[in-house]
């Protein structure tokens, strides 16, 4: 699980792209077997499903990033924060 998390954190855009393409494929496969829609409508619906899923994943990633930043105890980040706060006070 850690290997997957580290790969995703290093390749964020690739992860989102793979998720989007797989969601389009899954939606196309599902609608092909379930409904008698024209191919153009199937593609439109697949795109909408994939975009909704991508927005949900991006929202989750943003929340995770925010939580991770708030709970990190890395001394270098704290030092950078104190330096930027001190620079703001001097201005």
Automatic annotation (TrEMBL):
Annotated Gene Ontology cellular component terms: mitochondrion
The UniProt regions of compositional bias labelled Basic and acidic residues, in chain numbering, are: 71-83
Broad class of where this protein is predominantly found: mitochondrion
**Region annotation Disordered: where it falls in the sequence:** 71-91
Pfam families listed in its UniProt record: HIG_1_N (PF04588)
Location of the protein in the cell = Mitochondrion
Q: Which Gene3D superfamilies match?
A: 6.10.140.1320
Q: Which domain of life is it from?
A: Eukaryota
Q: Which UniProt keywords apply?
A: Membrane, Transmembrane, Transmembrane helix
User: Looking at the keywords, is Transmembrane present?
Assistant: yes
* InterPro entries in the record: Hypoxia_induced_domain (IPR007667), Rcf2 (IPR040153)
A GO BP term here is: mitochondrial respiratory chain complex IV assembly
- Parts of the chain that traverse the membrane: 12-30, 50-67
HIG1 domain residues are: 1-76
User: What name appears for this protein in its UniProt entry?
Assistant: HIG1 domain-containing protein
């Amino acid at each position: 699980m850690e290997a997957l998390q580290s790969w995703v954190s290093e390749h964020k855009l690739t992860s989102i792209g793979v998720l989007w393409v797989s969601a389009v494929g899954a939606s196309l496969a599902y609608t092909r077997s379930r409904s008698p829609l024209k191919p153009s409508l199937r593609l439109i619906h697949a795109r909408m499903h994939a975009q909704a899923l991508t927005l949900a994943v991006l929202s989750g990633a943003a929340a995770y990033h925010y939580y991770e930043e708030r709970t990190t105890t890395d001394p270098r980040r704290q030092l950078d924060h104190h330096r930027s706060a001190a620079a703001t006070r001097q201005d």
